[in-house]
Amino acid sequence: MNDTASLDSTSASVIDALGFSAEMSELRERIAAWVAGCDDEMREALEWQFMSGSKYFRPLTIFACHRAMYGAAPIPERVIQSALVIELFHNVSLVIDDIVDRSPERRGRATMHTKFGELSALMTSGYIVAEGYLQLGDDLQGISLFSELLKRLGVAECLQWRLRRQPLGYEDWWHIAGEDTGSMFEICACLGDRSGKLRTYGGLLGRLYHGCDDVADVRGLPALGGGGKEDLRDGILTLPASLAIADDTVSAAFCRPDPTDADLEIAKAAFLKALPASEAKLDDIARQARQEARLFATDTAALDALIEQTRALSGR
Amino acid sequence: MTSTGPDSSGPAAEEGRQDGTGGLAGSLAGLLEGYARIMSQIAGGGPGAADGARIGSTAALIEAGSIASGSALRYSQRLTELFARHQSALIEAIPAHLSGQDLPPDRARAEVESLRRFLREVGETAMLEARRLDHELAQLGEAVAQGVADPVSAEDFQRRAEAKL
Predict the structure, then answer these.
(1) Where along chain A do its domains lie?
(2) In this complex, do A171 and B105 lie within 8 Å of one another by their Cβ atoms?
(3) d(C-alpha A12, C-alpha A54), whole Å
(4) Between chains, do B131 and A197 touch, taking CB under 8 Å as contact?
(5) ipTM of this model?
(6) Spatial distance between the Cα atoms of A159 and A175, rounded to a whole number of angstroms
(7) What's the whole-number mean pLDDT along residues A99-127?
(8) Which residues in chain B are closer than 8 Å to A292, comparing Cβ atoms?
(9) Which residues of chain B make contact with A171, given a CB cutoff of 8 A?
(10) Domain covering A9-314: architecture
């Protein structure tokens, strides 16, 4: 095992550019130390999950939001601890997603439940959540924010599943993306700024991330982990889907409970056709996020960099 | 968060748009802010007093009044612009509904989308202005608090007692 959790190569340059290399090294060392101190029964699974490459985009969002509000002063202990816990909770969401989606691999590597079995993956997830709260100690604001996050993520997943294969539209996508990925980044922003002023910025950044993921999936890009085919077959309301199903023929194919190959081809072609409109929506969200950053932040450079990095994920 | 208009007329465009009622409201809001700055100086606050410097209570009340008025005007301006942007889509939908005719499903869905977008943007506009007002008043409150706090001198940090080691 390495003595630090490894960093995804694509994120390293952004972290360097924003000047958070020291904080990120500290975070990776803390994750490694935490894994090393966990129960023997769980350690192998935790090493598998945490010691592979990670984008650390959520901790980076926390640090960037802190700097945007308080300048280049050292990141306080409480904020670094929040970054550790967000990475723990994010990994819980990945493990659960992989179990539910029956995904054998994530980013070219066996998923936790494939490698260690479902029981182990589920129990390890519970263990991580409990550890996360323990790590927060007396940070009551942090505890409250993480509780909000877990509740909203749970609701969002149920909502997204319940609303599958329905003739909905962009407004529904906006709501789902805001509660799913949006809630994650909203909480990251709040954990970083500790005032709530960047909450809306975080929500927009999360929607942007969610939308870029949707678009990259349609393009077949591996940028954020893939999943386009599964989304299509399940009738998940992605950003391109929300725009494409305004057409009745596409809507009928998309909403069919047991879609034929022909239905899937119709939907796929329509989603590809909706990519320019999807990109325009993403541009609009990015513009709103930039404007929101300027409302309260004293230094918007790091916030702008996050937007640019996220926007590039659609693979335009 | 502000609006996400369907026709490239989001907040950035709103900022630059100074026509009609919106422009008038924007000008009035600017005038009020200028007036408040002058009154604040007369009342002893000095230029930029609300930006972290000390401010007297009279000046603070005048400034608070102008901030609130400016905010109300800005909110009205944004609502007017928002309505103008969605007006054609909303008006287009009314005759069809009044005549009771059944719309094709895709058109009905498009109309519902338009209405929902309009309502969301109304809510977002209100939230945005409320957060701006809250922020500006909090800054003013901080300046007032600094105005009544005892000045801190370097001597306050000079320990006289000796440490018992």
Answers:
(1) 9-314
(2) no
(3) 10
(4) yes
(5) 0.77
(6) 10
(7) 94
(8) 1-2
(9) 113, 116-117, 120
(10) Orthogonal Bundle (1.10)
